[in-house]
Amino acid sequence: MCTSCDDLLEVKYDIDKILSIINKKQFTQRPINVWKYIEMLPIKPKSIVSLNEGGTNLIKCNRLAENIGINDLYIKFEGSNPTGSFKDRGMTVGVSKAIELGFKNVICASTGNTAASLAAYSSRAGLNCYIVMAKGQIALGKLAQSIVHGAKIIELKGKFDDAIKLVLDISKKSDDIYLLNSINPFRLEGQKTVAFEICDQLNGISPDMVVVPVGNAGNISAIWKGFSEYNTYDLVKGKPKMIGVQAEGASPIIDLLNTGLSEIRPFLKPDTIASAIRIGSPRSWKKAIKSISNSNGFGTSVNDQQILKAQKDLATMEGIFTEPAGASSIAALRKLINSGKIDKGDKVVCIATAHGLKDPDIIINKNMIPYQIDANLASLQSILGDSK
What we know:
By secondary structure, this protein is α/β, with parallel strands linked by helices. It folds into two domains: 58-84 and 187-359, Rossmann fold, CATH 3.40.50; 87-184, Rossmann fold. Helices cover 43% and strands 13% of the residues. The protein has 16 helices and ten strands. The protein has helices at residues 15-21, 24-29, 62-68, 87-101, 113-125, 140-148, 160-173, 185-191, 193-201, 218-232, 252-259, 285-294, 304-318, 324-339, 360-366, 377-386, and strands at 58-60, 72-77, 105-109, 128-134, 152-156, 177-179, 209-213, 241-247, 298-302, 347-352. The strands form two sheets. Strands 1-2-10-7-8-9 form a six-stranded mixed β-sheet, with helices on both faces. A four-stranded parallel β-sheet has the order 5-4-3-6, with helices on both faces. Strand 4, helix 6 (140-148) and strand 5 (152-156) form a beta-alpha-beta unit.
């Protein structure tokens, strides 16, 4: 945090120096992952803590595109990162910075994915990891990951916004614990690499729009920073509009965009099945608003029914299983196509932020139970006949 205004910091680079050391031919021949972009990241190579994160698939989705009514749709599936979410991009850089600075203890507040990622990278680095979370507000898949990696988990009676306030307070009072929520500017440097990868995977051509789920609001600003920097380095043509998506039950940033207020109005009781974006008072809201504005983008909100439909459509039409928060980008795209805010000729990338196995209870609770039959051929044939 800035010691003068107490606002968030941002990493800036010597652009001319980076341009002077990038060998474009050699650079483009490297395998795609986060550390392909080492010259554009604020970490010394000897400090790197990695699980081979990044290099996630950019999947062209023709069936879903036709169903929604758009010509050119891609899903950037961040669920194929090591712990199953985009958070690994930030944690490899954030934990590496903790090592570089000599810390032995790290802490975060989390709705789930941050916890799982920090726990994994801390265990690899040999750091003590502390996670503060709201009791009963984390999906079991994410909680299990945090537990198995050996993190010390602290549950509080409250919500995520209470947890983030606590970890901020303790990190200000203690000089031996490093905060690794997305307000940490070094963590966001890792998350910007999703933009670099999209540009490389589209052969140096920027998409027209990128649709991003928004919770604590660090990711959308990181991705915009990535597109802007790649354009500055002359490694991509053009920049996309950034489209931010929140759930209706937790949409303070979208409300601000729609009303023209100068400050967000926090949701005191955020409520949505998309637990990863169930945040009522996002800390990086100013960065998100700035990124959306600077890209000539906009925001929208979607309800839980739209999110669940999008999750199922993506899975049944394209074989991609993302958690509800990740599906919110698809739900938003359908809504924006129907309203005419996105043209069917636009090249759109939707960010699917995490794997669906992070939150399997939603699927079990909301979908049809399996068929139950007797162990004989006639029973099986009766089911197969129903499927014709």
